Amino acid sequence: MNTPVAEQPFEVLLAEDHPGDVRLTREALKGSAVRINLSVAANGEETLAFLRRQGNYTGATRPSMVLLDLNMPKKNGWEVLLETKKDPELDCIPVVILTTSGAQEDIVRSYKLHANAYITKPNRMDRWAFIVKAMEEFLLHVARLPHTAARRKKTEAAERQLSRRTSRPSAPELSVGSISV
Q: Considering the entire predicted model, what is its pTM?
């Protein structure tokens, strides 16, 4: 039996090389009302391998969202963003820039490369938790996100199962004639 759609974990890839920011993100997600499976990639090349399910990530679940730091080793966040948005297999995955830079040129460049949102990392845990909760509320309860193939199959199976449980035999139709006055 499939798990109901609401109980499916929301898959998030955090592309972050700073262990402290990884820890803060994990802590902020702990109080989530929704099950969130957070995977972490520590550099740009690892991020792309994870998204493309290459190398050590052949069995990885494609994320529903990417939280992307701009300042990463091997490939920076803009290179990852550019490659992600040019790849037809990945271009619909929402990418939220989560970085220390508040520079206007970084914000503009990120949006020109089709980032879905740009957030400057806070320096206090309470603000970090607020930002994570706001993203969760918007992305999980307000916005409509494209399904990944696996998530779509599970959703469709759950909808078929629900449909079978709620469908009832239809009553015979009654023919009603029209009356002219």
A: 0.74
